[in-house]
Amino acid sequence: MIIGKSPLRISYIGGGSDVPSYFCNQPSYVVGTTIDKFVYTSVNALQEFAEQKIRVTYRQVDSVSKIDQISHPIVREILRYLNWNQPINIATLADLPGNSGLGSSSAFTVSLISAMNLAGNLEMTPDQIAMLAIHIEREVLQEAGGVQDQFHSTVGGFRMYRFSSDGHTYSNSLIDDQQAEYISDRQWIYPVGGLRSSSDAHKKIINSRGKDYTPDANIDDLSKSAHSFFKAITESKLTPSELYSQLTNAVKTSWELKSRQNQVTSSAIDSIIAEFYVAGADAVKLCGAGQSGFLLILAEPEIIDRPPRSVRKEWILNARIEPNGCKTFQL
User: Fold this and answer.
1) How much is the pLDDT for 194?
2) Domains defined for the chain, CATH in brackets
3) Position 206 confidence tier, pLDDT thresholds 50, 70, 90
4) Higher-confidence residue: 284 or 204?
5) How far apart are CA 128 and CA 106, in angstroms?
């Protein structure tokens, strides 16, 4: 059995600028990190005498003879792209529910491609895995959205990503182990507003802008703020507390810009964010394309020990920085 273990991500600054309608005109910058919450995909061979040659287990079970009969679109298109012709059993599970604004859909795509990469001895590099995930999701399946999630989950760590028509690149890790521990001790996520498809959320935002939409100044400012943060923390040596302060200021600015976009937030979400600030949080934002999912809360542990009354304390999860991208294991 081969297992792909792919991390979820938090996009701190620049999210929303990682779409072709923006970065094909000017470079886009995004700063984010992967966290210690994962999507797992297992792959193992079925015996030749199995009646159905392909078995896929997720919220339902697809037990079929041909790739075209697979209901799960990502699994179907990956196997089709790879021209897979061997009996195979694929199953998936995750630490958090899907459609949560933490890049879970792309994390699944990356974990499956990585597992198939090992199963088929394909020798794809991490960049090639990320680009194939983008191809499957954005080009083959025509799912709306950006391209940062696929790189986050493949590469991992606290980094800046640069997206452009000339290609996509990323920095080395922007923090050391001590800084990572300091931020991790103060980084939390909290579910709000139910779950939603990030592709559907992106489509609603795009439709609300009209067919002649071009990225507005907010998107430009989001990208520039990510690049400014990158320069600020790399041009001087910062203590863990200084870096944390820079991060909280940048996250607050990023959310102020992003929340101005149509259909990103709601009065209920804004109310919970305001309550966390009253309780003493340093920065709060909604993760992902918007509308619902998980809040990112940057706050001292004592704030989480006495959260707002409307918040269920047991639902607040510590989200520690994960320095690695997708890993594969053979059992």
Assistant:
1) 65
2) 2-174+323-330 (3.30.230.10), 177-319 (3.30.70.890)
3) very low
4) 284
5) 14
